[in-house]
Specification:
Elements lengths: L28 H8 L8 H24 L12 H11 L8 H12 L4 H37 L7 H9 L20
Helix pairs in contact: 3-6, 4-5, 5-6
Length: 188
């Protein structure tokens, strides 16, 4: 067979071309195991700081996603098109439950007034208001269940009424996921 001419080889090569030698001695088994040993959990301060920063970044991303109503970041309680519809339905209206916390603060302030009759009537007014809020929650629950049944028929998820009632007693700016509709923009 004809061979192509190769460049003159003036310097001897360090590794033979046959590939049988690697130019260093084979490490013993103990040396190989020692080289492979690493801690299962890195103990370095840098690794801990990096893990903490990564976790904080993931939490911030999840918090922003939940506030925006992104289904990937919502809890199981808030996921799904029916729950989104209920949130929009509740967020579009006014509810008495949104004023419970301010009413309680007002009653607490009234207890500092040294007039007993004023304290008594403020507590009675608060109890009356709480009963009205419970009535509003029941009415909201009934309305949501009826509207959901009209929209989805027999495929309505369980617990939509309770979900709507619990959302209705939260002040709008404190609700999570954040409201996606303005007041008066009822969903279809």
């Amino acid at each position: 067979m004809a061979q192509t001419p190769s460049a003159p080889n003036d310097a001897p090569s360090e590794a033979p071309s046959s590939g049988s030698s690697k130019g260093r001695p084979t490490p013993s088994r103990a040396e190989q195991e020692a080289a492979r040993k690493r801690p299962l959990v890195p103990d370095t301060k840098e690794a801990k700081a990096r893990a903490k920063a990564d976790l904080a970044q993931q939490r911030d991303k999840a918090r922003a996603g939940m506030a925006a109503g992104d289904d990937r970041y919502l809890t199981a309680r808030d996921k799904g098109p029916q729950r989104r519809w209920v949130r929009d339905y509740v967020d579009a209206g006014w509810h008495l439950g949104e004023a419970v916390m301010p009413a309680m603060v007002l009653v607490i302030i009234m207890t500092f007034v040294p007039i007993t009759a004023l304290q008594y009537y403020s507590f009675m007014g608060l109890w009356l208001f709480i009963f009205l809020v419970i009535g509003d929650m029941v009415w909201t629950s009934i309305r949501v269940k009826r509207a959901a049944k009209a929209k989805w028929g027999d495929k309505v998820e369980k617990g939509l009424g309770w979900y709507a009632a619990m959302r209705s007693i939260q002040m709008k700016f404190l609700r999570l996921p954040k409201p996606q509709v303005k007041r008066g923009e009822h969903p279809k």
